[in-house]
Design a protein that fits this description.
This protein has 118 residues and is mainly alpha-helical. It has five helices and no strands.
């Protein structure tokens, strides 16, 4: 559940942020209009994903989630970077299959490396 919520939050952040960047660019003759919003959106998404994964797992009482946070954060960086042109267009989004694979990867990592007491 944590991976799904984090993915939805970061994807929504990117959609809204890129729309704001496009709006800034369309109302200006400046070549670099909207660049700040675009870069801020990407940085926020990349920083937010590992934070949400960590916070979600901690809220559920799970420990030993270092693999999920590191690999999930890096995988999100790669996924969102690869599909940046898809999500940057009006009404665009990362393909559902790619999001599903990311969620399956994260869900698998969430169960890997849990503290085994006993």
């Amino acid at each position: 559940m944590t991976v799904v919520v984090a993915t939805a939050a970061c994807h929504t952040l990117m959609s809204v942020g890129f729309a704001s960047a496009r709006d800034s660019a369309s109302g200006s003759d400046d070549t670099f209009a909207g660049t700040f919003e675009f870069l801020l959106t990407m940085a926020a998404s990349w920083a937010l994903m590992p934070l949400l994964l960590w916070a979600g797992m901690r809220a559920m009482g799970e420990t030993g989630n270092v693999a999920l946070v590191i690999v999930g954060g890096l995988a999100w960086l790669g996924l969102s970077g690869y599909y940046i042109d898809d999500i940057d267009r009006a009404g665009g989004h990362i393909p559902a299959l790619a999001l599903a694979v990311y969620i399956l990867l994260g869900t698998g990592l969430a169960g890997f490396g849990l503290d085994q007491r006993g």
